């Protein structure tokens, strides 16, 4: 049993992470998983959780937290009329399908390989947002079917395996086809809803009955961590959405590219640091 002071320190870290995750959910239309997963990994390690399930528990719990934060973020953005509801309707099967597939393969996938892929993609996207935001586009209209269905499924799969809300991928996808960054951010909140709900159920199913799980866990979701973070994240998220709409297009793009760079470096460090 770790010292009380150590547990208090990590509890405080969880609270701070909840605030940051909520702010990111509102500003960038993401679920905050890129912040929460590594924090959960550390906390569960200190708590003595079986190393064989720590990463799965971190991703599953992050996915659970994305459910209410993405719903709250989506509601805040939708009130401003910025959401592309047609795209979300077209992905109502594809994105959840990808999230369910992620839960199925999560216990067999190499976390190192997934982190490497994510780090590389995030670095490329950060460079694109920072330096080619107004000069590089794939077209003026989003792809039609079946390409759009495939994209949605892939987004759901990658996001589900990493415990993120899909905003990182969807923001770039939409802006590559000339959509305004504010619309991309708002729509990404809806994508987070489509990913997180089936993802949550999938991670509960995937970890059901695992003997290495800590107390207050249902499958690969720990409700103590959920309870510590979710209240503050829910309070902060609408302020992030308000901030997003107060920023200029370039400011939002710059902030998003810096966020992607941070995420990329963090994953590289976890692999080679």
- SSE ordering: HHHHHHHHHEEHH
Mean pLDDT rating: 83
**Class derived from helix and strand content:** mainly alpha
Please report the number of helical segments: 11
Number of domain units: 1
Total number of strands: 2
Helical content (DSSP H or I, runs of 4+): over 70%
Sequence of strands across the biggest β-sheet: 1-2
Strand share of the residues? Answer: under 5%
| Low-pLDDT residue spans | none
Quote the distance from N terminus to C terminus.
Answer: 28 Å
| General shape | globular
Largest sheet: 2 strands, antiparallel
> How large, in whole angstroms, is the Cα Rg?
18 Å
Describe the fold and architecture:
It is found in: Cell membrane; Membrane. Its main location: membrane. One of its GO terms (cellular component) is plasma membrane. Keywords: Cell membrane, Membrane, Transmembrane, Transmembrane helix. Helices cover 75% and strands 1% of the residues. Strand 1 and strand 2 (221-222) form a beta hairpin. The protein is built from eleven helices and two strands. The chain has 273 residues and is an all-alpha fold. The longest helix has 28 residues, at 51-78. It has one domain (4-272). Helix 1 packs across helix 9 (181-206) and helix 5 packs parallel to helix 7 (147-162).
